[in-house]
Every structure is written in C-alpha cells, then in structure tokens.
C-alpha cells in the first residue's frame, strides 16, 4: 500500500506517448498546442476605426464632410486638412486621418461638421499590427486552447493547428450482481451506475471514449475482455473486481495480460483498493466497485494522467475554509464530498463509499487527516 502523496508522484512520473495531429481550430477546444504558433500577418491588418464616428484630418473648428467609409469598403478616400469622412467601426481609415471622433461628440449641418470635444492625435484609431506583428510568436507549445484562442487563430486566417490528440479511454464493468437500468431487478441484484458515471465524467474532458464493455465475474472472461480492450485504448478503466473477494479476478487477469503494477492500494478513504498499472505505453486503472470510491479515484488519480496525455499540467487543489468543526475518526486520511460556496466548505451527510447522493449534491472533494479539525481551518479541495 502507498500513501496518497506517493500515488500522485508515481502517476506524475509516467511519460505517456503524445500523438500530434492537425485539426481545425474549432475542433481544438480543450486541447493543447503541440507546436508554436507564429503569426502569418499583422493584426489589425490595416489602420481602422475603433468606433462609429468621423475620421478627421488636422485640427479645425469645423470640418467639411467629403465622403463615407463603411466596414469592408475598398474606398481610396484621402483627407486633406479640415476635411472629414463618416466612418464605421472596423472600417479602414482614409489616408490623412489624424484621429476619429465618436459621433456622439459631433454636430452635423449638411456637409459641415463641428465638434463638442477635441480628440487627441490618433484617438480611436486601431493601428496596423498594434496587437500582433507578422512573424511574432502568438502561442507557445503547450498553450491551452479556449474559446478566445480559437477566435485568435481564425482572425489570423489559420485553419489548421498542431495539437496533442485526445487519449482513447475504454471502460470495463465487472460484477454479476449488476443490471442495466430499465431492466427488472432480480433477487440480490442492483442497477449498474459506475459505467454511466465514468462516461459522464469523461465527457467533461477532451478524450475519446471507445466504449463501455461488461464482463461476468470469472477469470477467463475478465482476462479476455482486458486483452481485447487493451488493443484499442491508451487508458483502460476497470470498475470493480479489484478487491480480495472470491469473485474478484481483475488483478490476476491484469497479470495474465502483462500489465505491470505501479501501485496497488492507497492509504485513504474511500478508494483504498485502487490499482494503477501499465503495459508498454498503455495504462490501466482498476477502480473500486463502490460508486463513491470509483468517482473519487477517478477525479484524483485518472484526470492527472489524462492531462499528461494532452500536454497540460494536472490541476492543483485550492485552499478553502472548513465551515464547521469536524472529526475524522479512524486512522486513514479521508476525502469527503463537500459543498463549497464563497470559499467555505460544508461536509455533506452520508459519506459511505456506496453512496452517490452526497457526490451529486457537492462540488468538491476535501481532504482531512485523522483527528479533530476546527471551523475556519484551511483545507485542500479538488473541484469536480
């Protein structure tokens, strides 16, 4: 058995094989750039107006309006001192423009324009290249791609970027007692939920889920299913069958498939019977069968490896205040489902490893060591 810190360290030391691929920026949200992006052009491309108003040439009490320039116009209008042109946001400013005045600060009578405020030189003019220069490094390799990144790339005319590909993740569910929701429950049976929970958790991450398989509790079926799934995934998640019961065959089946143990069992509650292993460049997590234990281990130990595949860093826990006195009984460090609001964590009722309701009502996992913890003490939280 390893400590929580050692489990984190052993996962962090893994070096998954990252695959580069080229995708359209709109398909890259949530991924990380695999290569540096250099701008092929200036942004803005040309000097343009920052607002609707009038382009002015020189300083004058009044100006004569000689034309109009709309956004997208190909006008070659040139202003001389004392002349002005009606202009709209984003339109190329005429040659000779010294400033743009917003329309709310003007008075117009026919072709005569007077000002209620004198603009500073260069006011309201976006200068060519003031945001990005041609040849400038826009994003470093490893940059996380969000909505603004997509917009920036498209504004540069870029239609293909190099990213680290989504890891392929498969799920294997074990347990003879499990029945699919909607079917009739028999004596001693329960509805299977871990597969759906894990799929839903994976949907929040940029991964490719290859599917969910079910297997009966026997060694041959379990070993065969693992062998088949390892042929098509980067990460395999197995639910249940990793403890020490008479019908827990996962650990032996993993050994038969040459999966090397990195660690087995973590000194924590819930989620002690967690297995993490690898076979060449593939990784396997055998998660506890209890629903809350399974999700706890997923958020704590699976997501960091997924971020490594993507070229990003694992999320670090934040610090929040404990909203009430609390005692951790027993000897194992414990992760509790909690509701965190405005920096204060309230530990929820019904924390059994088989109970999902508190998980659904909460938004974070808080960590507490054995002993008494007073209200207001700072504790780490992993948001989910």
Automatic annotation (TrEMBL):
The keyword NAD does not apply. Pathway: Cofactor biosynthesis; molybdopterin biosynthesis. Its EC number is 2.10.1.1. It catalyses: adenylyl-molybdopterin + molybdate = Mo-molybdopterin + AMP + H(+). Residues 170-308 form the MoaB/Mog domain. It holds the Pfam family MoeA_C. Keywords: Magnesium, Metal-binding, Molybdenum, Molybdenum cofactor biosynthesis, Transferase. Its cofactor is Mg(2+). Catalyzes the insertion of molybdate into adenylated molybdopterin with the concomitant release of AMP. Belongs to the MoeA family. This is Molybdopterin molybdenumtransferase.
